[in-house]
Write a structure and sequence with these properties.
- By secondary structure, this protein is α/β, with parallel strands linked by helices.
- It has a single domain, classed as Alpha-Beta Barrel (TIM Barrel).
- The chain is about 30% helix and about 15% strand.
- The strands form four sheets. Strands 3-4-5-10-11-12-13-14 form an eight-stranded parallel beta barrel, surrounded by four helices. A two-stranded antiparallel sheet has the order 1-2. Strands 6-9 form a two-stranded parallel sheet.
- β4, α2 and β5 form a beta-alpha-beta unit.
- α1 runs parallel beside α2 and α3 packs parallel to α5.
């Protein structure tokens, strides 16, 4: 097969949305938002529109409420200034032929009193995370959170629904529920962070209830077939995971089959987890037989491994983070098997255009004779 005809470059239908290819730009926190209104700026418009050749863009995590914030310079989706800022982004992406979902986010215990008017961050239970929040003083340890009351849990579920309604008005093609990386939804899933005695704690079914009620709230506003979910079954970032992780995620993923989701995204473990037998080393391969819908995979893929995971049917889409960060025209580079720009880790997080909108396109490199 000619490399330009490889399956990764072919269109894919996810719900009512047709993608031009199966390369997804993964959600990445870049800390470039306005720090007062927590709204996207002109830099975001340029950044996302540059990368519109992706089959689908998943935006950076966007807090669904002021309470959900855990880092400086992150964009939200809970007020009208943010809606207008994101509308400028979605308009630009669509004008350049792209598709974009917003990632809906609540950091839960991975926050700091700075973002909580001096109070404690919230969580399923009062169990401290081994993590840090980005504040005006730099990265600071997250404190012990306070446990949410049951009615507060219900209020946060409605926050997700209201955020989805705003995202729809902002022109997004869909919404992804951030249920990974140790943030609030995953905090409810894991028994290491959820010791509740109400209907949101205890059994696997109860610990999963928050996720499914969030899905219901988001899907009501966005539509099931425009809603996606991101899970990291073998995650050890911001969490010690779950004592019954395999059973937990098999239950969750099987139940997701009851929904007509746009897709499910599964994140591979950052490191080898062979010493944790309750965790799965090869997540997409393990759970592919469990999930019947469109499946996206994420985790340290390069060109060849991404092509292989699509060709074997292990996943329908593959998402790239750092490679899309440094290569706004990644699909073209993959098609031509062209050299890739080097990433600059010193500019991954910041407030300026350096390392954000100044990575060169392949044609610019050719024109400059580099």
């Amino acid at each position: 097969m000619n490399k330009n005809e490889h399956k990764i470059f072919t269109p894919l239908q996810i719900g009512p949305v047709k993608l031009n290819n199966r390369l997804v730009m993964a959600p990445m926190t870049r800390n470039r938002a306005d720090n007062v209104f927590e709204a996207p700026t002109d830099l975001h418009v340029e950044y996302y529109s540059q990368r519109a050749s992706a089959g689908l863009i998943i935006s950076e995590g966007s807090q669904v409420s002021k309470q959900g914030r855990g880092y400086m310079y992150t964009a939200g989706i809970y007020n009208e200034e943010q809606v207008e800022g994101w509308k400028n982004v979605t308009d630009a992406v669509h004008e350049n032929g792209g598709k974009i979902q917003i990632q809906l986010w609540h950091t839960g215990r991975v926050s700091h009193p700075y973002f909580q008017n001096g109070g404690k961050p919230v969580a399923p239970s009062a169990i401290k995370a081994d993590s840090k929040a980005f504040t005006p003083n730099g990265f600071e340890d997250t404190p012990e959170p306070r446990a949410l009351a049951t009615n507060e849990v219900e209020d946060i579920i409605q926050d997700f629904g209201r955020a989805a309604e705003r995202a729809r008005r902002a022109g997004f093609d869909g919404a992804q529920i951030h249920s990974a990386n140790g943030y609030l939804v995953e905090q409810f899933l894991h028994d290491s962070s959820n010791k509740r005695k109400d209907r949101y704690g205890g059994s696997i079914e109860n610990r999963s209830r928050f996720l499914f009620e969030v899905i219901d709230a988001v899907a009501k506003e966005m539509g099931e077939n425009r809603t996606s979910v991101r899970l990291s079954p073998s995650n050890l970032f911001n969490t010690d995971n779950d004592s019954q992780s395999r059973d937990l995620y098999e239950y969750v993923i099987r139940k997701l089959n009851e929904y007509d989701l746009a897709f499910l995204e599964l994140v591979e473990p950052l490191d080898d987890v062979s010493d944790r037998p309750e965790l799965v080393n090869h997540v997409a391969e393990h759970f592919r037989p469990v999930y019947n819908g469109m499946l996206s995979t994420n985790g340290k893929y390069d060109r060849e491994s991404g092509m292989k995971v699509i060709e074997t049917g292990t996943a329908d889409m593959v998402s790239y983070a750092k490679l899309f960060l440094a290569n706004p025209d990644l699909p073209e580079r993959f098609k031509k098997d062209a050299p890739l720009n080097e990433q600059d880790p010193d500019t991954f997080y910041g407030t300026g255009k350096e390392g954000y909108i100044d990575y060169p396109f392949l044609e610019e490199i050719k024109e400059n004779g580099k």
